[in-house]
Design a protein that fits this description.
It is built from seven helices and three strands; from the N terminus they run ααβαββαααα. The protein is mainly alpha-helical and 174 residues long.
């Protein structure tokens, strides 16, 4: 919390122009940290909270997905400001933003933090909507995200449902 307050104070003192220059570095750092948290021994939390989404640095703990959520919002504001969505090519700023956000989304899903993945997806979708993207893009992203999360949920909890059914029939034989 203390580091967050210091970062907030620092952010208030820095000019928007300077922040825009730092955005690519912040996005790069957040992607590196999202990858680092997946490395056994670096990332932790799977036993405590069910997702491997924390990095402990001595007495401090850091959740890279929180930085990623802020970074993707700043990135969208920087890259998409005063732009017009013209095509679905990878070189289009809207598509580039969506691809980088998709990589961040997948890295958070691999951590097992589905709530944070959904939170990041909402930031991305609303950033695209407010930037004036063609409505089909956020709808496609939303449908793909829901299908992907449903698929992951079914795979992750399929054994749980099988065990529940088996326990039911053990208690209530026919």
């Amino acid at each position: 919390v203390f580091l967050g307050l210091v970062a907030f104070w620092f952010g208030l003192k820095v000019s928007p122009h300077t922040l825009r220059k730092c955005v690519p570095w912040i996005v790069g750092l957040s992607i590196i940290l999202l990858i680092a948290v997946l490395i056994p021994g670096v990332g932790t939390g799977r036993e405590e909270v069910g997702s491997q989404s924390w990095i402990y640095l001595g007495p401090f703990s850091l959740q890279p997905s929180e930085l990623a959520r802020v970074a993707v919002g700043m990135f969208g504001a920087t890259v998409l400001a005063d732009k017009e969505h013209k095509s679905m090519k990878v070189t289009d700023p809207f598509m580039m933003y969506s691809l980088i956000a998709g990589v961040m989304f997948l890295l958070i899903v691999l951590q097992g933090d589905f709530g944070m993945a959904l939170s990041l997806a909402l930031v991305v979708v609303f950033t695209l909507i407010f930037a004036g993207v063609d409505w089909r893009v956020p709808v496609t992203i939303g449908v793909a995200a829901v299908c992907g999360l449903l698929f992951i949920f079914l795979i992750k909890y399929s054994e749980y449902f099988v065990l529940q059914e088996r326990d039911y029939y053990d208690w209530y034989p026919m």
